[in-house]
Design a protein that fits this description.
Layout lengths: L5 H15 L4 H13 L3 E2 H8 L3 H13 L3 E6 L2 E8 L3 H26 L5 H34 L15
Antiparallel strand pairs: 1-3, 2-3
Helix pairs in contact: 1-2, 2-4, 3-4, 5-6
Length: 168
């Protein structure tokens, strides 16, 4: 049975979004929980809230930590690990997309190099794809820099922007 609590629904949606992007669903749920709640969580509290094992919470929290999406925090007198949102999770997302596009461009160029010149049309189309990936990586790098500048210029916690709908 699906929860009617809007925060729980958001947490589950983040899990599905992360899964559709090729990441672990539990990592997305952890990210959603930390984002929505806006406070640090100990692993056991996180596991209980998400109804997952502590080992799974630990594995996925460490994955998010290594990606810079979350950070470890300590509480005086408490030996537990606590996780909270990282300093720039959105910029890290964009950096990840840019790096993925850059890797794709490189792989496509390597494939293009193997296509003989006698298959010029195929070679050209494959090169166009590599250029698309490379330009997309440049775009996302520029966007990440824009996000960094926006973070420096504004307080994201107080910023309210309307998110445009792109439904067609």
């Amino acid at each position: 049975m699906q929860s009617t609590d809007p925060i729980d629904r958001f947490v589950e949606q983040m899990g599905l979004i992360t899964q559709s992007d090729g990441g672990p669903r539990i990592a997305g749920r952890i990210f959603g929980l930390l984002l929505a709640e806006g406070r640090p969580f100990a692993l056991n509290e996180m596991a209980e809230r998400l109804k997952i094992s502590k080992a799974s919470a630990s594995t996925n929290a460490r994955l998010l930590l290594s990606a810079g999406m979350v950070q470890l925090v300590a509480r005086p007198g408490d030996r537990q690990d606590y996780y909270e949102m990282g300093a720039d999770p959105y910029g890290r997302m964009v950096d990840t997309i840019s790096a993925r596009m850059r890797r794709s461009a490189k792989q496509v160029l390597e494939a293009e190099a193997l296509i003989p010149d006698s298959q010029g049309d195929a070679k050209r189309r494959v090169r166009e794809l590599a250029i698309f990936y490379d330009r997309s990586a440049d775009f996302f790098s520029t966007w990440a820099a824009h996000l960094d500048q926006s973070a420096a210029d504004t307080d994201f916690g107080q910023q309210t922007e309307t998110v445009p709908s792109h439904d067609r």
